[in-house]
Each structure stands twice: as structure tokens, then as C-alpha cells.
Protein 1
Amino acid sequence: MDDTTNQTPGLYGDPKPWDASTSYNITSPNSTFVFESPISPLMDKIMNIFIVIILFFSMISLGCTMEIPKIRAHFLRPKGVAIAVVAQYGFMPLSAFLLGKAFRLSPMEALTVLICGCCPGGSVSNFFALAVQGDMNLSIVMTTCSILLALGMMPLLLYLYSQGIPNIERMVPYTGIILSLLMTLVPCAIGIAINHRAPRYSPIIIKVGMSILLVSGVAFSIMVGVTIGDTLLRILSPRLLVTASLMPLSGFLFGYLLSSIFRLKGKCRRTVGVETGCQNAQICFTVLKVAFPLEVIGPLFLFPFVFIIFQTTEALAFAVVFRCYTRFKAPAKDKDVYQTVDLKAEGEGSEAVAIETSQ
């Protein structure tokens, strides 16, 4: 084969990385190796069904943490939502583009990273917002707005940063985005209704939902590790692994910093930080599968799995650090106020004398 993506200079130079003439076939003098997906069609279907079921019931439990008046307040005063949208669609695509430049990724690698950076926030951010004691009402509102905006922002951002990919509308999985929106709104609405009509059941549902999520998360991680873990380590370059680790980390830090500059409350800062760094990698995976044949995309279609691994690990690390900080930080000294009444003065119509002592 005359052209390979690794021989092409520039970030989005010719031959175009979305052209079928560019292949991930690896040719040597004595043999030819064509990349084959380590995930069978049956396993792919099982994983998708597994994820949908677990997310649906887990999102119901998150809905039980929300209150209608607080949701309404975020829509009426959307300062936090606006900051999150700017961070999500302003910083994350830019960081993906700059990381591709900084690490001199091949055109196909850079485009894969860019697609991930242009994706909206995902449901996983809601669980991590809960883990860092964030504002759950703000988190769900932010996720909903992010997914809605993705219908227009993903094509626009991909067009701007990739210098005009032809047939861009075919690359954006509008059906998948709408399904992601429904998977956020419908179960959350059920949880909100339960919390509003029968709040006594909410704590039980939350505990059950989080327990199911924890067990299924461990099971899913083991399944992915057994299925594609060895493949990921063998075929993905160190530069791409570093890029996947820096993207969510930079998003977490930038979202928190930007919300701090605009003086949001602590729980809202943590929420914006988590929402910014967590991308909907499932949409990225769908784009890569739909837009590129396997012989073109090669092992890069597994990049969303790598991103999820780093995203989850870093978010869990932040959650553990935060929990340890809140648990072991030195408690502030409380002031006890005692009031003594001078009976004589009281009898004469004078005010009682208040004496404040600190312990």
C-alpha cells in the first residue's frame, strides 16, 4: 500500500484521514496484517444492552436526589449552566485539537481525539457529581443542555477544527444523541416524580441504584479488560495514551477554575468541573463505527474505551481525595454563646447582658 496515516505530515493534511484509501493494514516484506476487532458482534450487543439497563435504573436513583424547585431555579438563573456550556464546547474541543498538535499525532489519531473532544457530556458525570457531593440538580440540567446542544455544536465544531470534513452530517449520530437525551430525561423524570410524590422511598432507591451501579461497573470493567485489555496495550501508541489521560484531567481542572473565577458555590464548582471533564464516549464510539470502515479506522475505534478508563480513574481519584479531605480536615472551633441575666438590671428595665466565651 502506498499511503499510510503514519507517513502523512500535518494534523489534517492529505491524504484525508476519512478517505477509504487510507488504511490501517500493516504491510511487511513477508506478510500483511489487517486489524480485526477484538469485540464480536454478539459481545457488542450484550455490552450495549447491559449498559442501557444499568444506566436506566441508576438514573432513576439519581432523579430521586433532585427537587423540582431547585431545577427551576437553575433554568431561571442559568449562570452555572452557561459556564459549563462554555467549558464543555469551548475548552474540550480546543484541548483535543492542541493535544493532537503537541504530541504530533497522525491525522487519523488527531481526528479520533477531536471527535471525542467535541462530544457532549455523558450520564457518567452525574454519578461522579454525586460522589463529590456536587449539586445534582445542576448536574442533570447541565447534562441535558449539553446533549441538546450537541445536535448543532458537534457538526459545527468538527467542521471548524478539521478544516471542513466532507459529508459532516453523516458523521454525527443524531439518533444516538437523541437516545442519550431520552436515557437522561426519562429515568430522571421517574426519579423526580418518586421523590416528589413519595419521598420516603427515595433513600432506599438511591442506595439500591448506587449498589447496582457499583457492582455492574466492576463487572463491566472486568469484561472489557478480558475482552480488549491486551489489545489496547499492544496497538495504541504511548502518545495516544498520554493524550487520553490529559484530556479529562484538563477538563476537570479548567471547569473548576472557570467556575471559581465566576464565584460559584463550592458544590457547583465541583459539579462544573466533573461535567466538563466527562465526555460521552459512547457517542464518540458510535461516530467512529458509523463514519469509518474498520480497515480505515483500525484500532483507533477503541480510543473511547481508553478515554473512559482514564476519565473514570481520574474522577474516582478526585472523589476519594475530596472525601478524605472532608472527613479528616480539622473541624473549626465552635463558639458557644451563653447569656446571663442580671435580675436586678432586668427589674430596673435594663437589657440583659450577653457574655460570649470561646472554647
Protein 2
Amino acid sequence: MIHSQIEDGHYRMREQIFNPNQRQQLEDKRRIKEQLQQLQKDNVSPSHMYRRQVKIHADVDLLDEHDSFYHTTKSLLVLFQIMGVMPIMRSPKGVDMPRTTFIWTSKAFMWAYFIYACETVLVVLVAKERINKFISNSDKRFDEVIYNIIFMSILVPHFLLPLASWRNGSEVAKFKNMWTDYQYKYLVVTGKPIVFPKLYPITWALCVVSWSLSIAIILSQYYLQSDFQFSHTFAYYHIIAMLNGFCSLWFVNCTAFGTASRAFANELSNVLATEHPADKLTEYRHLWVDLSHMMQQLGKAYSNMYGIYCLVIFFTTIIATYGALSEIIEHGATYKEVGLFVIVFYCMSLLFIICNEAHHASKRFQERLLNVNLSAVDKATQKEVEMFLVAIDKNPPTMNLDGYATINRGLITSNLSFMATYLVVLMQFKLTLLRQSAKKALFTALAANMTQTKAAP
């Protein structure tokens, strides 16, 4: 006891002399020494303090019963199956296999092949007609090229669907199964199920809104763009509905993560209020790591689709904004520019929803752990709190598109800055063209006047 007090006194004196980095190193060495002493005192294997328990094996019927996330979001999954966007399937009840599967020869995939082939025929016909019309058109102004590029770029996601969506089907099935397992483990640890009270009506509403908004946007282009034929609209409905569906899917997943995080934080607060919560904190730490891994798996599962999604939004927004501003400068505002601004508003709204929902879902709740009075709890609880904070730091709840980009509010500002840069370059190019046209018109007028002057008697 006396030796410990003397040693503590030496540490305090050194802390007053050393700089912050040296004090941190001293504290780390002291903490490691305490941990080694604690491990030597354990009669049994101390690995139970750090190692995750053996994976919980549950009956498939229990997994189905407590899979609230699947039951509340089933409508969106069925919509994606009908559209052929993501042909994953739910295993039949009572079958001992992963609850969500992805098989290239399944019935859902056969339907996806068929519906995709039909849509491809329609899209190719419309794309071919637009290309032929552009080639045969004598007006080759830069602005006319821009207008054709806008509507051609919207057709691109259809051709990228197999590569961007189907190719990652196994990762999507893994993500769904992670949700199923997590909900059961959460029930075992906390004794309470995760409930998503508002998700069921929200998902149904988003399914209806996805197609309704698609029809409204395409019809608005038909009425506002003079060269947009009604027959061409049928090639765009399913593409815009697909983009809306992926935005809805992201919103639903982020909302579910937010609900699970709030429920987890409430249960964590209740556990910290009890006496000797160290054992429970270990299980909660494992739950947190699983939840963080699920957030990371969301970005990995849909990395290709949302990566292309963001690129299409970025490209289309720049071109549409330039087309609208260019036409206003040269000819004034018309219904055509209104249609282009509708596209800009639509694309930026999708980007904002995706980034904003990811931001809310990724909020940390480690403030509750940082406010714990460590002097009022036992050493085991202190160690668990420290390990919990390390787990949060090493497994942050970020949504990353498989290393390509991190989805948060910062992505909005970076995209806006890039868009502004490219718009400035394009507008400079436009103004240069206008000056050249003005000079050419001036020289032509002067030449005509001189010719008339010479011809006059």
C-alpha cells in the first residue's frame, strides 16, 4: 500500500515536469502495467475479458420472427424484384440456410433477365433515334450538343445496372443477413426487440413516390422541352424510378440505423446506471462493433451503384445548369430552361437526401461514455469503458463506398465546389463563343456596308 502511494507520488511529480506527449506515454505505460497485474491475479483464463463469445446459433423460425427490419421494408425489396434492379430472394420459412440469398439462376434473376432485355430494346431504340436526329440535324451549335448529352446521360444508368447492381448481389444479401443476425443478438443481450414503428408506412409511401415522381418529372420534360417526343418518355420512366428507388433504399437504411442507434444508446445508459456493469458492457461493445460493421457493409454492398449514381448526378447537374444559364444569357428565359432547372433541382435533392441521411445515421453517441465518472466505478468497468471508446474510435460508424468516397454532408459541399469550378470554365467558353459571334457579325455588317457604299453612284 505504502509502495503504491510512493509510486503514485512519483508519477504525479513526473506529470508536472513532462510535456503533454511525455505525460501521455507515461500514462500509457502505467495503464499497461496495471492491466498486466490484473491479468496475473486472474485464476482463470483472462481472455474472456477481451474475446467475443461464441456466435449465437438461433433457430431459423426465431430469426424470421424477430427480423423486424425485413418485415417493415419488404415492400421495397419486392419493388426491386419486380423492376429487376436487385433480384435477391428471401429463403422459405423453416429452411436452414441464410435468410436472404442471391443466386444467378433463381426465379427472381430469370425475371430480372427478361424485364431488363425488354427495357434494353426500348432504351436502345430511343437512344438510336436521338443519335440519328442529332447527326442529321444541321444545327450543330454547342448548346444543342449539350441538350442531347443531358438526356443521353440519363440513359446510361440502365446499361450499367448489371455491373453496378447485380454484380454486388452477394454483398447485398450479406448485408440483409447481418441485419437479421444483429436483431436477434440485440434481443438476446438486451431482452428487448428492435422496433421500427414508422418504417413500414414510410417504405410503402416511398415505393409509390418513386414511380409517381418519375412519371411527373418525365412528363414535365415532355411538356417543357419542344424536341422531347412522347414516345421517348417510356424509355426514361423505369430509369428515374430506379434512381428514386435507390435514394429511397438509402433513406430507409439510414432511418433504420438511426432507430437502432437510439435504442442502443438508451439501453447503454440503463446499463451504466446499474452496479458493476462491466460484463454487460462487454456484450454491448460487441453489439456496437456489429452495428458499425453493418454501416460499413451498406456502403460496400451498394458501392458501385451509388458511385455511378453520384457521378451521373454530378455530370447531369453541371450540364443542365450550364444549358439553362447559357440559353437565358443568349435568348432569355423560356419553358425549356424551366425543364432544365427541374432536372437540376431533382439531382441535387437526391444528393442532399443521401448525404444528409448518412450524416444523421453516423452520429456518434460516445458522449455518454465520456461523461461516465470513472472514479465512481470499479476497475473492471473502467477498463470496459476505455475499451468501448477504443472500439468506437477504431470502428467509426461511417458509410464509405468501398473506399471510393465517404458519404456525409462534406460530399455535398465538395460537389458544389467542383460544380462551380466547371460551370465557371463552361461559362467562360460560352462568353468566348458569344464574343466571336459578335465580332463575326460586326465584320459581316461592315463588309456589307462597304460593298453597298462602293456600289452606290
Protein 3
Amino acid sequence: MATKTIASATVRAVKKRVLPSRAALVLTPTAVQKVKEIMSKEEAKGFIGLKVGVRQRGCNGLSYTLDYATTKGKLDEEVKQDGVTIIIDKKAQLTLLGTEMDFVEDKLSAEFVFNNPNIKGTCGCGESFSI
């Protein structure tokens, strides 16, 4: 399965919060709108949604990845919310459990932000984290 990196992401450690027990990942309305915008440009290419994963990187150990998804793996988790599809890589499922995905735009940057209650620490720039 070929994937293409499409966006940068930062991470924020947040206090524990209660989400619906079946919620692997929740998107804010801003994130839903941005995913719809991104996918509207790419639908003709056969992508079914965005795939969120984690990889070893950065000074704190892990960072998020965002790619286009063409298929859903057997053990991947699928989140459908407000007309968008997010595929969570099997290796990232426990890391992302209970996380809120947001899209934040200001004068200097525009990026997806993961508000993750499972994080124990982040690096100074916010690109990597530890669990």
C-alpha cells in the first residue's frame, strides 16, 4: 500500500477526560472540515480517507504520521465521523485511544493537533512525545 505524507502534526498532553467508551479518536468540527477539504481534492485518486499512525522519531520517542489511505488493513481501526473516514494504524491504536484530533490555524502555521490524554511527556517543539 503506497502512502503519501500530507500534513504535519503536533501533540499536546491533556488531562484525562472521559470520552465515549467506543471512541478511538474524536475529531473536532474544525478537523472534520479540514479533512473534507483535503479529501475533496484527492477523491479521484482512490483514497478512502486519512491514515493516522505513529513512528519512532524525535527527541521524545514518537511522532504522529498522516497519510492518504487506499485500503483498511485487517487490524486497522476505522473511525467514521460526520462524513469523513480516519483509519488508525494497528500500531497506533493504544497510543491514540481517547485522543481528540483538532486543526489549528494561526498567522504562522496550520496543522493538525492531537490532544492526547495518554502522553507522559513531549519535546519542546511539540513534534514528539512519550507514553
